[in-house]
Amino acid sequence: MSEFTPPKPPLPPEPAFEVSAADFIKAVKGENIQNRSKLFKATGEELLRRKEFQEYSYRIGLDKDYVVLYSAKIQDADVLEFVNDELTDYNVGIILYKSVVPDVYLEKAKTKGWLLIHSHARYIYITDKSQSGDISIAGSSQSEVISINDKSKAGDIWIAGASQSGFISINRECQSGDISIAGASQSGDIWIAGASQSGDISINDKSKAGDISIDKSQCGNIRINRDSQCGDINIESNSLCESISLNNNSQCQDIIINKSQTGNIRIRESQCTTLVMDSNYAGMELYNASIPQMRITNSYLPAIYWQAGTKGELYISNSKINHLALNHTALLKDALFSVVDSSIYVSEMNKLAVQGQLLFTNTGPLDKPFKWEPLLKQQLPDSKPADDATDLNKDIYVARVSLLEEQEGEYNKGVEKLQSKFKRKGVNKPVWIIANSSMGKTEITGSELKGFRFEYRDSKILDMFIAGTKMPDGEIEIYEPPDAVEEYDDIDFFEQQVAVYSQLKKIFDNQGNIVQSTRYHAKAMEKQQRLLEEARKKDGKGWKSWVSDQGFDLFNFRLNKWSNNHGESWRKAFWFVFLTSLGVYILYYISLYYQEPFSFDATGRFIGHFFSFLNITRKEDFMPDGDKLNWWLSLALSFFGRIVTGFGIYQLIAAFRRHGRK
């Protein structure tokens, strides 16, 4: 970002004609004057018939009266004073055309506004309960200070047409309309302070401004647009701002929001040096933005959208987030996104490529979207005005409450849309989505993902690092876009589940967490079995399906499931060995002694030789009198018993050693 340079001191024009300060004031008061070619009175309709004023038609009211200083200067006074004991309405607007005036001072006075065209006025003071219409500095005009002070009121402040203004101040319970710097114009600092209020603040069309400060006050939207720039933007001390936006290759220095309330912050195709936000309720949208350092603490964030082309480091801590959206974007190589000690309701990572760093530390689910309860709503400055307060004080208070209620309404609409979009089977709960993404070296440490509904689709998560984190207990669901035309079929569903569980197995295996690894291995095998079952259904259920490769694979998966839960349960393997071997042994025993009448005396023989039967290296004649009875069946069952017992013992050892595998 190029370094911000404040505007140069303005240079006044050099008109040849002079008008006295006394005549100027007389004209404003409606008294007769002599020099009517350079100082005259006209209606807006009359002025707009003249070519030089037609460009400013939207700043000149047709039904208003104006006093015009035309190509002249006032040099016989340092100050033009409009001072009265009581609020006096001069009932005219004042237009300077190619003219120069000294300081303008309104005290307990009221005018319809000021319009400078190719002119210069050093200071414009509106103070002590004074009122003015719009103050417009246009057509390469210049002023050094515009000050609305001490319970005064003004309309729009408009700097346009390559004009220049110095310091703009709205201070001590004052009110103004919009403040606009446009058309390659420049201004100094803009300061709204002392329980004051302004409308929107706009820096537009290749214009520049100094710092923008809102201190214990309120303003509308702050917009920096179309190749424009400003210094710092400071919103502090229980202030209120409707929103902040930078667009179309614009720049600012630091954006600092400290214990104040703003609406959404949008930075699109623009850049700033630093963004610091503490104790705020505001969403954030970044698109092709460049912000080297961003810190958000103790805040309530309705939504964060990190979109394509954004560069910088974002640190979020001790905050609550309704919707974290990393969609259709990339965390570039030098980018960092960190969420620490925070709670999230919906974490949506869809079509994301993580090339930089994505970190979640001590992060958990937000059971439901947070309520709109900003402290500002409870701690309005000076509380509600007394009945005998001025109309201006009452107007400022009403406007402040109205803006808070408007922001609350927008927040509630956003919550309704969010819950509607991510409702699953009629139930709202926290959601964690990884879909169509490459998660790179994402780190999730010391976090609580157990309360999330976890959704996955077609993503690479192998390089993720997960440690000290409680993973979801239930099934990992398969993400389906809300606008999908068709639902996924069962084969697609189980293919996705195999992919995610297999990758989770490898993640924990690489980290040496064998307990988690084997659990996800068992899950992956279970889903692989279900996948084979669904594939077999498509091939038909005849006997040929069982002798196909797919049929044998399915049998193998089922056998592993029954014997030791795919290496996860040694207890299941133990019972598999005992019960299957016992079953075969019973058949083997009957094949030898089926002609012998039943006798309890033979129980000892039956039990005693069972343990010999479990020895797969036993001799064939380990049973007495075996050579006298049905040898062909006995040999077959003995052979089959060796296979069953050997397989069961192998599965038992494999499951028992699951935590020792490398």
Structural summary, described in words:
The chain is an alpha/beta fold. The chain is 27% helix and 32% strand. The chain contains twelve helices and 41 strands. It has a 21-stranded mixed beta sheet that branches. It has an 18-stranded parallel beta sheet that branches. Helix 6 (490-510) packs antiparallel against helix 7 (514-539), helix 7 runs antiparallel to helix 9 (549-564) and helix 10 runs antiparallel to helix 12. The longest helix has 31 residues, at 391-421. The mean pLDDT is 85.
Features:
single chain, 662 residues, 12 helices
Please state the CA-atom Rg, rounded to the nearest Å. 40 Å
**Head-to-tail CA distance between termini:** 51 Å
Q: Which secondary-structure class do the elements indicate? A: alpha/beta
Give the overall shape, derived from the CA principal axes: rod-shaped
Strand content: 25-35%
Unreliable parts: none
Helix content: 25-40%
Oligomer: single chain
Q: Summarize the biggest pleated sheet.
A: 21 strands, mixed
Q: Helix tally?
A: 12
Question: How is this structure best summarized?
Answer:
The protein is α/β, with parallel strands linked by helices. 27% of the residues lie in helices and 32% in strands. The strands form three sheets. It has a 21-stranded mixed sheet that branches.
